[in-house]
## 1
Amino acid sequence: MTTTSPRLSSTPRRVGGRRRTLRALSQSTPLIPSLILLVIFLVGPMVFALWGSLTNTALTGYRAASPQFIGLDNYVALFSDADFWNSVLLTLVFVFFSAIVGQNVLGLALAVLIRASAKPVSTIVGTLVVVAWVLPEIVAAFALYAFFSSDGTLNSLLTSVGLGAVSWLIEYPMIAVILANVWRGTAFSMLVYGAALGEVPPEIMEAAQIDGTNSVQRFFLITLPVIRRSIATNLMLTTLQTLGTFGLIWVMTGGGPGTRSSTLPVLAYQGRPSGSRRSATARPSPR
């Protein structure tokens, strides 16, 4: 009976492990320039911003030239500010109703309707929706301000049908900016879902139709499960985009009246302690 030395039997494993390591390193070498750029342009600014949050630095004045380390004082002041938690709540409401519900549901509905409509109708509807998306944000913001202002287009339409005018930007600022963001961003969701619906296998839909299912059942039981990855991707993209929305809200309401539409990006721009923050009425009029 022959026995194999444990040292000899482990040698091939070591050699194989070294080869795999060298192969992995050689395959990762082309990624080194990308990693360097990622560290410089992504990680670097994040570290710099984190360090700045631990100091009393400012954009101008003495503190801009000679900032001092103050530890967690900025975070303590932020978390003890009632306006911060109000902005967190408003941001969650804004993202949920304008991105997760508004843009995704309306975008999917438009994509389904366009595929089911005649060519001229789908072309006209698709063009009108995409125009809102391709407009520069500042142009769209001024147009929406004019639409929702007290003497704007919306109130003119309401007055023409016998309804009273409403000061949308003062009485219902969050509803106004939510509807504005839905109008602004629905085209992206419509295009994503339009492409996803084109990937649904027609033979599956035909088989389900032969089995006696109606259009609603086919939509919920077949179409939605097939495009679930596109739904998840679009939800993520629209949420991230809406979290950073600033220009639209700033032009329409300036975060006001008071802080009733001050989301986190607006609060970060205002950057002043509670009580000294400029109200919406103090901002320049976009007219």
## 2
Amino acid sequence: MKRINKIILVILIIFAIFLTILVKKYDVLAIDQFFLEKAVALRNGFLTKIVKVVTNLGGTFWIIFLTLICLILIKKRKYPILITVNILNVVIINQLLKIIIQRSRPIVEHLVNESGYSYPSGHAMAAIGFYGFFIFLINNLNIDEKLKKILTSFLICLIIVIGLTRIYLGVHYFTDIIAGFTFGLIYLMLYTNFIKKYLKHE
């Protein structure tokens, strides 16, 4: 791992620990209440339909579906295996963190049915773990640079929007999303660093 990446990783870990301590101590932060109120104020029937579609892209069904498609379509055997192991790791780590932190979901009308604990957001963590891994793979493939930038930009926007939908739907606080992104990125940096040696000849 490059020195700059090590520095970024350390900063992310420190931030994740700091944020988790804050959440454990105060539960709902002022910034959580602020964004939740703003999100609820934006609600309307048409927007809610769009948000529900987008949020599903970070859900279990859709990610499993995409993983199965990868298993079927990608000819190089190592890629589907890496993708499958990746998302399994994300799910396990997220569930362990939820059990450790045990933060209840926001006390507001939930526009989708969700159970379990709130911190960190599973959708946010899965989005950055799953789609972020695709960004890594795309940038390690021998394809047009312009196409790489387009696909990378699209996936980054998708990751961010999926996270924001969870606040709109009332099932997560802002800090749940930030924690999901942070823990997801920490994991992704470690995972991609570990598997780079398997992709160096691709």
## 3
Amino acid sequence: MSRRRISLRQELPLLVWLVFVWGALWQDFSPGNLLFGALIAVVVARLFYLPPVELGGRFSIVRAVAFAIVFLGKVVAASFQVLYLAVARGPKVTNAVVAVQLRSHSDLMVTATGHVISLIPGSLVVEVDRSTSTLYIHGLNVRNGEDVMNLRKEVRDTEAGLIRVMGTKDELAALKQEEGA
């Protein structure tokens, strides 16, 4: 089976990410180590099939800063909530796995949304269905239907924030239309 050639422009974000991860893993960002990491990244990208990272062509730094501030606030608030639940309620806490269908079918957006949600204490992505862009989230302290709806809303709000930061123009237009309706 021959693999379709991916242009360097399409593959560049992946290569840069792999080099960054290489430097982080070795805790060494010296030019020699990064050059060796780049060599390994090219070999990995050419030998193993990795789907291209398709960027939407837009990135809003203002929205990214606002998103980061909101995200940090959620992390702090959720950390205190998990602490409270662990100390006050212990093993009596009710959990649930909730399916959340996302708006975007972009691998990048689905992955970014899943990672952001998993970084917030009390929630974890346990499964991803790429065919339907559905995340299955294990949520802490989900007691009833209202909590399920709140968890779904939080995940979709996170996705909306990411669409505002780096979604495609079509995703952004669909989001604006959804919010206007």
